[in-house]
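Appendix B. Raw example, untouched.
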Amino acid sequence: MPLSSDRVIDACVHPLPGGGYRMWFREEARGSVTWAADSPDLITWGAAGPVLQDPRHEGPNAFELGGWYWMVTDEWRGLGVHRSTDLST
């Protein structure tokens, strides 16, 4: 699925554990959910699909801390906090 760069907002990029990079973002044309795209080189990107859908949110921010990968999102009533061991689950 092609990305519409004029509608991608709130992007955050982090290196993947096995190499390459993942970008999380909100695509305004597809609602207030977090989508992901992967890249081997930070130039070529392929959409991976939606990764967080409910509750509706914006502004995903991913980082590594204490052996976990964390993502914080703005749910408008507070922050959503998500964690993963591999940036996929």
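End of appendix B.
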